[in-house]
Each structure stands twice: as structure tokens, then as C-alpha cells.
Specification:
Blueprint: E1 2-10, E2 16-19, H1 21-29, E3 43-54, E4 57-70, H2 79-98, H3 111-117, H4 125-135
Antiparallel strand pairs: 1-2, 1-3, 3-4
Length: about 140
């Protein structure tokens, strides 16, 4: 058994597109190297799904996150907004671990919560089911 990560982008009409991990990594490293004209000038919903695999076949969904990706007018990924959201999410997750024991802070810095929330979205049950089915290979969708 093993785990596999599957990434999907959704257009304005809930059309689902598979984004290979290697392409996304390329977009992160060098946004100019891989453009997606279909998403030019848009904020696009993204679903990242971790599936459990048996004999290279996805058998169940383990975990899903939903984020937003921003593209410039020529379809190049704008990694700065993505990086900002990811850093805020990581800081929120780590805050309880690095907080000083017994500190009684009365003021909470909510800036990271707002930044992290700005990079997330929540699907309807129907859309979440469609994404799960695509991640498990039961629904076909175009690859980008």
C-alpha cells in the first residue's frame, strides 16, 4: 500500500481538470515556463486529494484540502499569493506548538487566520463527491 497525491483545478462552471504534480511543481519553480491560458486572469479553485493505493490503484480518499490559485492575464501562475496563504496556514498549525507554556496573552493576532482563510474554499457535497470520484479514477477529467 502507498499514498498518492492528486491535484485538480475547477473552472467557473465546476469543470474539473487534473493537474499533474510535476506540472504544478514546474509552475511553482518557474511560473513563466508553464502557462494555462484557460485560467488567464482568474482565481481558480484547487483540490488536492491524497488517496491510498493498492497495486497502483486508488482505493480510498485519505485527505483533501481546498485552495485557490491565482493566474495573471497570460495564464501564468502567481505563486506569491499561494506562498503567502501556505505560510499563514503553516504558522497557524505551528502556533500551538511554539507558544510559551502558561502565557496568558489576551490579544490574539488574527492576521494569519484571515490570510489563510483567503486561500481556501469549501465545496458543496455534490462537488466534493465528484472530486473524490475523480481522484479514485471513477470519473474521467481532462489533464492540463
Amino acid at each position: 500500500m502507498g499514498l498518492s497525491c492528486r491535484m485538480f483545478l475547477l473552472d467557473q462552471d465546476d469543470g474539473l481538470y487534473r493537474l499533474p504534480n510535476t506540472r504544478f511543481e514546474q509552475m511553482l519553480r518557474d511560473p513563466a515556463s508553464y502557462r494555462l491560458p484557460r485560467f488567464a486572469g482568474a482565481r481558480v479553485r484547487m483540490a488536492e486529494v491524497v488517496v491510498e493505493c493498492l497495486d497502483r490503484q486508488a482505493i480510498r480518499v485519505i485527505w483533501t484540502t481546498f485552495g485557490l490559485l491565482t493566474f495573471d492575464g497570460e495564464g501564468r501562475f502567481r505563486s506569491s499569493a499561494f506562498d503567502r496563504h501556505q505560510r499563514a496556514r503553516a504558522e497557524l498549525a505551528l502556533t500551538p506548538l511554539i507558544a510559551e507554556p502558561g502565557s496568558a496573552a489576551t490579544v490574539v493576532d488574527a492576521a494569519n487566520r484571515f490570510v489563510a482563510q483567503g486561500g481556501r474554499w469549501a465545496p458543496s457535497r455534490t462537488l466534493a463527491r465528484l472530486i473524490d470520484e475523480a481522484a479514485l479514477g471513477r470519473v474521467k477529467c481532462p489533464r492540463l
